[in-house]
Amino acid sequence: MQLTVTINGEAVSRDVEPRTLLAYFLRENCGLTGTHVGCDTSSCGCCVVVMDGEKAVKSCTMFAAQADGHEILTVEGLAQGGTLHPIQQAFWDTHGLQCGYCTPGMMLSSYVLLKHNPAPSEAEIREGLALVWNNRTLRSLALVAAAWQILHHMQIAVLILFATRELGLSAGALGMAYMAGGLGCVIAASAAERLARRFGVGPLIVYGLLLTAFGWQAFGLIRGSPAFATLALGVGMLLFDFGAVLWGINYLSLRQAITPDRLLGRMTATMRFLAVAAAPLGSLVGGVLATGIGLRQTLWVVGSLGMVLALVAMRWSPVRRHRQLPAVVLD
Ligand code: FES
Q1: Domain's final residue, options 63, 93, 116
Q2: CATH at 14
Q3: What is the CATH number of the domain that holds 214?
Q4: How many Å lie between the centroid of ligand 1 and the Cα of residue 169?
Q5: Which of 258-267, 290-299, 302-311 is the least confident region?
Q6: What is the distance between the alpha carbons of residues 12 and 5, in angstroms, rounded to a whole number?
Q7: Does the C-beta of 39 come closer than 6 Å to ligand 1?
Q8: Residue with CA nearest ligand 1 atom 3
Q9: Which residues constitute the domain of residue 257?
């Protein structure tokens, strides 16, 4: 199909396949390689570009065809006449990057933030933190998510080592087991809505957590020949990923539904901060524990703590009482 997009102020016409994603259109058809692809799943933000001067869009999850007739700004269009844009200059001055891979996305996200809010303040960050802390359900979701992330990353730190060293699995066998996990994700995603109607959103969050704990516990119980271990790991993965997607979908839906529109960004930033900050701690604890008590035993600990977490959430968290998503939340 033929499309015309104004990119960095210049009209560009190209013939592309309808399935072409905007990120690949910019990189491969237009040679604008400043747009990076990190996760390819709409999570990391490396690929952010600006649409029509005011909307940050993730170009990895948008078709090029959707940009037809629109204006796109990429990082190449920020500097004017050889002079860095003030945002680029500020990144430069404050060494605002690590490896630099996601820097274009961060700069363009900052561009849109400042377009809508020229003077963002610390008070707004505090408002987001206070919103999560003062709302019992959000606070509970945040604490459960952070604890789950710690356990999850404890497991991630040891599972591959356990599978290769203690179960003797090859890379191919591991790939097959992980593929079964992917199947669990697909089944959970397709059944999530029906299950939420049947059991309720809050209960499904807790059941999902419990299933992930069973999965972790199952990993640590696997023994036997490599063929049997591959099969058992695949079943464990399927169970774990089914539970993780079930809990993830309902957790995200609930937190979005009970947050006023105006504060969605701040709530998400607070939740993401907690989850991301918890991850390295989990990896560290998992590594230290495995060094001390062994890989299999660490998986048992993770599974047991996961069950405790699910039971605590079931018993004391207000989350389980949310059987349905609220239709509208008033600001
Ligand atoms: S590549 Fe990560 S959000 Fe697009």
Answers
A1: 116
A2: 3.10.20.30
A3: 1.20.1250.20
A4: 32
A5: 258-267
A6: 5
A7: yes
A8: 42
A9: 126-321
> Do residues 230 and 289 share a domain?
yes
Average of per-residue pLDDT across 25-53: 93
Same domain, 262 and 164: yes
Task: Round the average pLDDT of the chain to a whole number and report it.
Answer: 93
Q: Report CA(185)–ligand 1 centroid distance (Å).
A: 20
Q: Cα separation of 331 and 325, whole Å?
A: 16
CA 8–ligand 1 middle distance (angstroms):
20
- Name the residue of 25, 36, 42, 109 to mutate for ligand 1: max ligand atoms within 8 A of Cβ: 42
Same domain for 298 and 216: yes
Cα 316 to chain centroid distance, Å, stands at 26
Distance (angstroms) between ligand 1 centre and the Cα of 88 equals 20
Is the CB of residue 47 below 6 angstroms from any atom belonging to ligand 1? yes
Tell me if 43 CB under 6 Å of ligand 1.
Answer: yes
Residue 227: other Cβ atoms inside 10 A: 10
Whether residue 327 has pLDDT greater than 80 = no
pLDDT, tens digit (0-9, with 9 covering 90-100), for 132-141: 999 999 999 9
Asked whether residue 266 is assigned to any structural domain, the reply reads: yes
Pocket of ligand 1 contains residue 40 by CB under 6 Å: yes
Same domain for 71 and 148, yes or no, is no
Whether residue 97 has its Cβ less than 6 Å from ligand 1 = no
Residue appearing with tokens 């709530």: 267
Q: Residue 284 burial (CB < 10 Å; 0-12/13-18/19+)?
A: middle
Dump pLDDT digits (tens) for 107-145.
999 999 999 999 989 998 888 889 999 999 999 999 999
- Backbone phi, then psi, for 261, in 5-degree steps? -50, -45
Q: Does 61 have pLDDT greater than 80?
A: yes
Cα 15 to ligand 1 centre (Å):
24
Angle CA 318–124–37, to nearest 5? 85
